[in-house]
Amino acid sequence: MLVTRRSPAYLNPMRRALPVSAVVLAAPLLSGAASPTYTPPELEAAGWRKVAWHGIRPAEFSATPTGGLRIRAQGEASVLARPLQGQPGCLAWRWRVDAGPPPTNLARRGGDDRAIAVTVGFASFAPSAGLAIRTQHAVAQAGAGQVVLPRSALTYVWGGTGQEGQGRPGGFFASPWAAGITQLRVLRPATAPLGQWVEERVDLGADWRAAFGGQEVPPVIQLMVGTDAEDTGARVDAQVEQIRFVPCR
Predict the structure, then answer these.
(1) Strand pairing of 49-53 and 173-174?
(2) Amino acid 31: pLDDT
(3) Most buried one in 47, 72, 121, 189, CB count within 10 A?
(4) What is the CATH number of the domain that holds 99?
């Protein structure tokens, strides 16, 4: 779950849950056609909404006793989404993988499986976003009404080969499904040690500039946690918790 460490009000997550329809409308921009599916009551009460990709069985998400998320799958894929408001400071969390897909090339469509992906959505487009991306987003936004959909996104991954972003600023590379919207970075490759907690801290402002260019970093508006084991049929057993804004140092 998202928690804060004595954060000011503008860094706190929105109390009102993001409508599932808005997540679905944003999905083609972020990773492909999707639809709402059953969300466990304890996750729904915390503001999460579960979305599954068309034609793919959804993974299982559950709340842990420590207030985190547990992800279990066997050749399945899906994502949880919730609104998040804040300025692009530093985001921290801890995660662990006890079972996950083998190394895959996350820069290619098909076979791009990963144990966990933490995605942060932003309010503005990348400077390089062209007319096609902006038009597609405008259509989705019109259907979402007053809910503001992400116009750019950073995805931090546990999975992949670890080679995808080598030689690129910040190690980021374009999503093969949403190149104009989402940039990925492998924090832990699939070969990272299993069964142990790992602490992460990312500078969202510096990362957005590295991934998209430009100097003015837009506000954060959405948080997503997902998994994908559909192509390899692999088993996933993973957890993520203590997702929070922290001071940059």
Answers:
(1) unpaired
(2) 46
(3) 121
(4) 2.60.120
